[in-house]
Amino acid sequence: MNLLSRCTRLPLLAACFLLPTVPGLTQATARVNAPGAVAISPNGSTLAWTLRDREDSTIHVAELAHFGDAKLVTPHGTSDCASGSPVWSPDSQTLAFTSSCTGKDAKTDQEQIFLWSKATGEIKQLTHVTGNIEQPAWSPDGKQIAFLFVKNATRSAGALDAMKPWDGVIGEDGVEIQQVYAVSTTDGQENWETAPSLHVYEFAWSPDSRQVAFIAANPPGENNWWVAKLYAQTVLPRGEQPHQEPVVVLDPNTVTGPLHGLQIAVPRWSPDGKRIALIGGLMSDQGSTGGDVWVVDVKGGDPTDITPNIDGTPGFEAWINDKSIGFVEDRRGHTVLSDYNVATRSMIPDSVIDLGEATVSGGQIKDAVGFSSNGVLAFVKSGHDMAPELWAGTGDALRQMTHLNDGARPLARTESIEWENEGLHVQGWLTYPKNYNPAKKYPMIVTVHGGPSASTGSRWGGSSWAEEGYFEFQPNPRGSFGQGEAFVQANRKDFGYGDLRDILKGMDAVEAKVSVDKNREGLTGWSYGGFMTMFAVTQTHRFRAAIAGAGLSDWLSYYGENSIDQWMIPFFGASVYDDPAVYAKSSAITYIKNVKTPTLVIVGDRDGECPAPQSFEFWHALRDLGVKTQLVIYPNEGHGFRNPDHIRDRKEREVKWFAENMPEKQ
């Protein structure tokens, strides 16, 4: 389960959930300008990007040759609203983008699609819809723009935001369906839409503009992404043809081989229109994308893995030509760009670009990497020691384009740490306490990421625990991205066991390296990290205090409580009704009498991914067993907290909990 796209958009991931909010760190990071989504024009001459300032975001455009003359693109001359999702027309002359700047002095949550003319600077509103718009994309002939759309939406699509209160006939009333809509670029009138019988997650135009490929499943969309199929559908402008039904190109649940029963994402057509590339692998959250790169004929048939045995995790791919595909991968904490020959399924010599210990846009690769038709690429690069900046160029001549944050300095030192356990090579990150003195001993907080199919990368933002005088250890145990698909799948039917052993072994490696006070070690995590926290304190007394955020205490009851139960079957191998024992084996409640660790439990009351009853069940057990505990439930919050007051209050409670339960000996 994860969080990285609206906050950066990923469900059991701890990225946004652990945003620093203590006063000193908040003030430091508030001064950082954060470029986000990137769009390079097809001719490689012009770059568009978003820049976020607290709640608002703006779009900027500049010629690569004259980058100092950037233009602010905003409807109605106001930037006190949100603009995003920039995408260039095929002729590189018009920029489409979404914005809530729909009128003078008008600030609403409703976004529309706008068009900006590079030649004249004119901006016109293209759509006039009511609902949620995502992922606008030009047709290759420039005549249409398609986008994901939820008509009359009451919330963003997906399970991350706060769920609607239960009401009416559950599973039937009020189900919100995301479809692909397409409008004419001349008058904004609707040309076509996909059928409401399918909830669409991603789509891509065919090179001839006559088809779309999309990944979709039967509603409800929050639950069924894990069993989604790849479809292709003929789509022509209104009046040119009768409605065409979508055709299944690939169903992971019916194929044989390594892709069987796994998840697919990021469909991309080959330039000749005959094949579709995608990412396929074991994924715990929509938006937290990772796996191998697969290619399938648009007419169907067996897919081909073109990256077998790769030692990293690709998360985004694009065709370079009919013979090769380029992709971005997470490789043991590094971000790496590579090109592969489709026919030979091998890396093209001298094509690798290692960006080092860095991420692109905090991990949301699809929005952060742009490719032009002539080999120019652009991306947002950041890391523990580098604030986010725009980079662009060709593979052998990449250069930093912006200097938005030249004065920004990390608040503490972070370095990669690696260790061996049970034949596996494991990687993680160690952040030192602020003003570290090697002659002193310091307490340590272990932060476990969500997912589990995700990873903690080198991202700007600092560590609130370092600010408070702690080491922070962020391991990427088995089940994480970054070391190939076999490593990702190494936790199947084994939640809480092998991954916990990896974490404990990593703690040993940290203790052998730096001066950790072993009597003051704490554990925390959100989502899957919250589960790991609840489970770990039933297996070891090594931690003096723990904080479980949005966790899971009982996989059996969780199966019937959450809004996304389909994600569990690929990991547990069966439903809870067919094999309850495998679920009980990884449930903290099964071993709850072993707990001695003081544990703070935190959750949102409308969390659809990790419902509040899971936290209540764990807290209730600890309370009855006489273990120090506290449960805090925040109103109107989903899996990712949105209310700044709640985020601030939560962080203050976390800091206080560790300070009180891991005091320094006088």
What does this structure look like?
This is Peptidase, S9C (Acylaminoacyl-peptidase) family. The chain is of the alpha+beta class. It has a domain of 248 residues: Rossmann fold (3-Layer(aba) Sandwich), CATH 3.40.50.1820. It has 12 helices and 38 strands. The strands form 8 sheets. The chain has an 8-stranded mixed β-sheet, with helices on both faces. Strands 21, 22, 23, 24 and 25 form a 5-stranded antiparallel β-sheet that branches. Strands 26, 27, 28, 29 and 30 form a 5-stranded antiparallel β-sheet that branches. It is globular, with a radius of gyration of 24 Å. The two termini are 41 Å apart.
Write the SSE topology:
Blueprint (H helix, E strand, L loop, with lengths): L22 H8 L3 E7 L5 E8 L2 E8 L2 E8 L9 E6 L5 E6 L12 E6 L5 E3 L5 E8 L5 E8 L26 E7 L5 E4 L5 E7 L5 E7 L3 H4 L4 E6 L12 E4 L12 E7 L5 E7 L10 E6 L6 E2 L7 E9 L2 E8 L2 E8 L4 E2 L5 E2 L4 E2 L4 H4 E3 L5 E7 L2 E8 L5 E2 L13 E8 L2 E8 L10 E7 L15 H4 L3 E6 L8 H4 L9 H16 L2 E11 L1 H12 L5 E5 L5 H7 L7 H4 L7 H6 L13 E6 L7 H13 L4 E6 L9 H18 L5
Parallel strand pairs: 33-34, 33-35, 35-36, 36-37, 37-38
Antiparallel strand pairs: 1-2, 2-3, 3-4, 5-6, 6-7, 7-8, 9-10, 10-11, 11-12, 13-14, 14-15, 15-16, 17-18, 18-19, 19-20, 21-22, 22-23, 23-24, 23-25, 26-28, 27-28, 28-29, 29-30, 31-32, 32-34
